[in-house]
Write a structure and sequence with these properties.
Strand order of the largest sheet: 1-2-7-5-6
CATH architecture: 2-Layer Sandwich
CATH class: Alpha Beta
Largest sheet: 5 strands, mixed
Number of domains: 1
CATH topology: 60s Ribosomal Protein L30, Chain: A
Order of helices and strands: HEEEEHEHEE
């Protein structure tokens, strides 16, 4: 039987993908004590980057939001692999977002809301988190967005 969070994902029409394998010398997550730290996830869909290039040049800011949301879905896939059961999540502690964009772009926070909003949709009050959002000139695999996360387990 699906747990509370799995049921919520189903209500939102979200199916978790198979967690992506690392593309370099790192692990997808580390569990230490009650914390799970998840390496940055890019907007992969069916094994391919769904949103590539720079936000405001190659993808619109709205598509950037969708990319951040997809990154959070990929974080959830890693989180399930780490925790075994998403109902064990007590708190989304922190999200870090990296937005590939030209120097004049200033809507990074709005783009990152795609991930933050989904965290709250999925976990309710426990989804409210601390956050950093940073503009960068490029990301691995030419992804438009990358999101990393830290979660507390019950």
């Amino acid at each position: 039987m699906a747990g509370r969070i799995e049921q919520r994902l189903k209500e939102l029409g979200i199916t978790l993908p198979t967690p992506a394998a690392p593309i370099a010398n790192y692990v997808p997550f580390v569990v230490t004590g009650k914390l799970v730290v998840i390496s940055g996830q890019i907007p992969l869909r069916d094994g391919a980057v769904a949103y590539s290039g720079k936000v405001s040049v190659d993808v619109t800011p709205e598509q950037g939001r969708e990319a951040a949301r997809l990154c959070f879905v990929n974080l959830l896939a890693q989180l399930k692999a780490a925790a075994g059961d998403l109902d064990r999540v007590a708190q989304v502690v922190r999200l870090g977002g990296f937005i590939a964009a030209p120097a004049a772009f200033t809507q990074h926070a709005t783009v990152m809301n795609g991930a933050s909003d989904l965290a709250v949709e999925v976990f309710g009050e426990a989804g409210r988190h601390a956050r950093s959002t940073i503009g960068v000139p490029s990301l691995p695999a030419d992804a438009a967005v990358e999101v990393e996360g830290m979660f507390e387990l019950a």
